[in-house]
Specification:
The protein has 191 residues and is α+β, with helices and mostly antiparallel strands. The chain is globular. Bound molecules: heme C (HEC). It comes from Oceanobacter antarcticus.
Length: 191
């Protein structure tokens, strides 16, 4: 797009209508991709939440940690078999495999800034199209349930189990309403 705009600047106004048509097509595309991405993120999030809730019900947070440990990556993998790749990332990681790349890092920081500026957590999403790939992120707010394993007053067995599984765990000390991280999705677009 930048290239096209530069071309228009160099050649004058004759490509004006072409430019606006291209912009429109891109926006439409982005809008429909965003709807699909939201749907994917919601399904993934729902499955994760149900898994944690089932685990908590069955055996409390210590048992649920086991489920998160094994099932969170498995659920992400199961949801990544079609066109989309789904995952989660954060500025304070529990699982180092969820580390953000440059765009994810910048987006996570911008989500925190937007939250601080008063945007509701549900509105915190971002997307981009680059190198034939669509990328989407959506913020994950911290709820009361999350504090069992991400809060600042963890039960002793929870603390112990977490430090066994994640010796470099940074994902504690959260309060309700803070952003715990974000869903991060990718889709390769056909040429
Ligand atoms: C029973 C303990 C437990 C509860 C409750 C829990 N989590 Fe986690 N969380 C974990 C574990 C264990 C991992 C690492 C799993 C993995 O490999 O993704 C994790 C990872 C994450 C990640 C991935 C980023 C990272 O740090 O690796 C996010 C985001 C996250 N949790 C958000 C939440 C939210 C939001 C809630 C509340 C709705 C929640 N968690 C509730 C244990 C828990």
């Amino acid at each position: 797009m930048k290239k096209l705009l530069t071309l228009v600047c160099v050649l004058g106004g004759s490509f004006g209508s072409l430019t606006s048509a291209t912009v429109k097509a891109e926006q439409l595309d982005d809008a429909s991709l965003r709807i699909a991405a939201r749907q994917q993120a919601m399904t993934f999030g729902k499955q994760l939440k149900q898994t944690v809730q089932q685990g908590m019900k069955a055996g409390g947070p210590t048992a649920a940690i086991h489920l998160c440990n094994t099932q969170a990556p498995a659920i992400a993998a199961a949801n990544s078999q079609g066109d989309w790749t789904v995952g989660r990332t954060s500025l304070q990681l529990r699982n180092p495999a969820n580390a953000p790349d440059a765009w994810e890092l910048a987006t996570l920081k911008s989500f925190d800034q937007r939250l601080a500026a008063g945007e509701p957590p549900a509105a915190l999403e971002a997307s981009m199209l680059e190198n034939g790939e669509y990328r989407y992120m959506k913020a994950i707010p911290t709820g009361a349930l999350c504090l069992n394993c991400h809060g600042s007053a963890l039960a002793e067995p929870v603390k112990t189990r977490l430090s066994e599984l994640y010796p470099a765990d940074q994902a504690v000390g959260y309060q309700v309403g803070q952003l715990r991280g974000a869903f991060t999705l990718r889709k390769t677009l056909a040429d």
